[in-house]
Amino acid sequence: GQQLNQSPQSMFIQEGEDVSMNCTSSSIFNTWLWYKQEPGEGPVLLIALYKAGELTSNGRLTAQFGITRKDSFLNISASIPSDVGIYFCAGLGSGSEKLVFGKGTKLTVNP
Amino acid sequence: GAGVSQTPSNKVTEKGKYVELRCDPISGHTALYWYRQSLGQGPEFLIYFQGTGAADDSGLPNDRFFAVRPEGSVSTLKIQRTERGDSAVYLCASSITTPGSYNEQFFGPGTRLTVL
Q1: Among partner residues A1, A40, A42, which is closest to B59 by beta-carbon distance?
Q2: Considering chain B, what is the average pLDDT of its residues?
């Protein structure tokens, strides 16, 4: 099935550093979403973006919906150990209810 | 309140056997979704229910996979003649339905299926 192109695949950072990850698609999406998944759990929504060019923050997280509607990025500032997990981007097309996910970015934060 | 629950949490079966995976959505959520997550991949859509009916089953990989939601609440994903390639985590999600706006999908913890 279709998956979005998400990079980097994994990141190893020190506590306190900023993190950036991005997602691209060959298709246009009307909604971009960022999820976090921890071991043994389902994905949990972090940020939802509804409009091209939109920049949205949720605490230390900031995400943007690309102007072309084919890309999005997520930034995490001042990382802490509990940020560890796998981050997924997901897109939702017009009139569709099925989420298309990226392959994920595995984040490791060293204290 | 209670989130989406899925049973069993783990299922080990032998190639060729039949399995059923159950999903209990959040109470009052009319929409229910099944996704499959293979190791190292993101979830992939399988099927979406609106009430009792399958509104979109375009993600079901073949006719060995079938899902039902007879009373518009609990759903069961059924896999016949399981193959080793069916091994994955099967995730269920549910949402309310508000036309014209994004309805957040809340995910359960998944059922890890291993086919030996």
Answers
A1: A1
A2: 96
